[in-house]
TrEMBL record:
<keyword id="KW-1133">Transmembrane helix</keyword>
<dbReference type="Pfam" id="PF14360">
    <property type="entry name" value="PAP2_C"/>
</dbReference>
<feature type="region of interest" description="Disordered">
    <location>
        <begin position="1"/>
        <end position="34"/>
    </location>
</feature>
<dbReference type="InterPro" id="IPR045221">
    <property type="entry name" value="Sphingomyelin_synth-like"/>
</dbReference>
<feature type="transmembrane region" description="Helical">
    <location>
        <begin position="123"/>
        <end position="144"/>
    </location>
</feature>
<keyword id="KW-0808">Transferase</keyword>
<keyword id="KW-0746">Sphingolipid metabolism</keyword>
<feature type="transmembrane region" description="Helical">
    <location>
        <begin position="246"/>
        <end position="266"/>
    </location>
</feature>
<keyword id="KW-0812">Transmembrane</keyword>
<feature type="transmembrane region" description="Helical">
    <location>
        <begin position="156"/>
        <end position="174"/>
    </location>
</feature>
<feature type="transmembrane region" description="Helical">
    <location>
        <begin position="221"/>
        <end position="237"/>
    </location>
</feature>
<feature type="transmembrane region" description="Helical">
    <location>
        <begin position="272"/>
        <end position="288"/>
    </location>
</feature>
<feature type="domain" description="Sphingomyelin synthase-like">
    <location>
        <begin position="218"/>
        <end position="290"/>
    </location>
</feature>
<protein>
    <submittedName>
        <fullName>Phosphatidylcholine:ceramide cholinephosphotransferase 2</fullName>
    </submittedName>
</protein>
<keyword id="KW-0443">Lipid metabolism</keyword>
<dbReference type="InterPro" id="IPR025749">
    <property type="entry name" value="Sphingomyelin_synth-like_dom"/>
</dbReference>
<feature type="compositionally biased region" description="Polar residues">
    <location>
        <begin position="10"/>
        <end position="19"/>
    </location>
</feature>
Length: 356
């Protein structure tokens, strides 16, 4: 029969053996036993140790050479001819519609609520045209320094051409009487083709402005071309300028808003002409730029904006523009920006490195 001392010794040895196995060490020695871990855990440990010791190699990945904003000036030229064709078409349609405008003596102006409350101011339409020319000049100066001017010009030409194409349709299908008894329309030519051609040239040479005495025809009321230009130039100025230039945007908005208001104060258009012009211009601008800036919409099967008739033209102009256009500006002439640089900058850097 075993003694109590032997039993206690056996229990203690068994306890030491089990505890040694749990600690991962061999009984009777101080060496730890190898603990088997998975390859994934071993890789994680090695990665953490490498980061802790900064024992890693930086691998430089070459940047993609794909140009997400190609200039494609040839497309801009096509957009320019598209706009020019529709502007000329507008003058041709106007000469045709002018022959159908009823005399103001037999067809007086239609009732208009704005005219009921606001009397006509003679010089107001001059303010409209001056504001329009100022906005166009501001937009051209901004374009001159804009880095991606080819894309911005292409979009401007396409939108102005499409808006005036719509205007040709609305002018031709419905002929409104003159909005005021003060309007003096040029005499009708009754089929004189040569004289009509001369009128087209006169309109084009004077940009269709009243201050140049080139706009003597009636019938281009629905919708207002002056409102189109005032609204579109402001939208482009705001879109392609820094968001922080709130004072710049406010100034251009005031020029546009005052110009549109003066159209009504001068009684040169019905209120519906101005409202329709603003609605069509702003929506067409926002639809186009939404599709252009969101790449997912270009190929989305659920994008109902692709049902527009101008979607093939949009795909042609915007196919290679793969990101939104940033508000980036640069000096347009290369040699001028080079001359403005400090010629001693590189020399001073080399000299400082030698001194060290």
């Amino acid at each position: 029969m075993a003694s109590p001392e032997l039993g206690n010794a056996g229990d203690s040895s068994t306890h030491n053996l089990s505890s040694g196995m749990e600690d991962g060490s061999v009984p009777g020695t101080n060496k730890p036993c190898p603990v088997h871990v998975s390859a994934e855990e071993e890789a994680k440990r090695s990665f953490r140790k490498g980061i802790a010791r900064h024992d890693y190699v930086k691998i430089s990945v070459p940047e993609s050479k794909v140009n997400h904003l190609p200039t494609e000036w040839w497309k801009t030229v096509i957009a320019f001819f598209y706009a020019a064709f529709n502007l000329v078409l507008t003058t041709v349609v106007l000469t045709v519609v002018h022959e159908r405008v009823p005399p103001k003596e037999s067809s007086p102006p239609l009732p208009d609520k704005f005219f009921d409350y606001i009397d006509r101011v003679k010089w107001a339409f001059t303010v409209t045209e001056v504001n329009g020319m100022v906005l166009v000049a501001i937009w051209l100066i901004q374009l001159f320094f804009f880095k991606y001017k080819s894309i911005a010009c292409r979009r401007f030409f396409f939108l102005i051409g499409t808006l005036y194409l719509y205007r040709c349709v609305t002018m031709y299908v419905t002929t409104l009487p003159v909005p005021g008894m003060h309007m003096n329309c040029a005499p009708k030519l009754q089929g004189d083709t040569h004289a009509k051609f001369q009128r087209v040239l006169q309109l084009i040479s004077g940009a269709g402005l009243s201050i140049t005495n080139s706009h003597l025809l009636c019938g281009d009321f629905l919708y207002s071309g002056h409102t189109v230009m005032l609204t579109l130039t402001y939208l482009f100025i705001k879109e392609y300028s820094p968001k922080s230039f709130w004072w710049y945007h406010l100034m251009c908005w005031l020029l546009s808003a005052v110009g549109v208001l003066c159209i009504l104060v001068a009684h040169e258009h019905y209120t519906v002409d101005v409202v329709v012009a603003y609605f069509i211009t702003s929506r067409l601008f926002w639809w186009y730029h939404t599709m252009a800036n969101l790449q997912t919409l270009k190929c989305s099967p659920n994008n109902y904006l692709t049902n527009t008739w101008w979607n093939p033209l949009f795909n042609f102009f915007e196919r290679n523009v793969q990101t939104s256009v940033p508000c980036s500006y640069s000096w347009p002439i290369t040699w001028a920006s080079t001359c403005l640089k400090n010629p001693c900058k590189k020399y001073s850097m080399v000299q400082s490195s030698r001194d060290e």
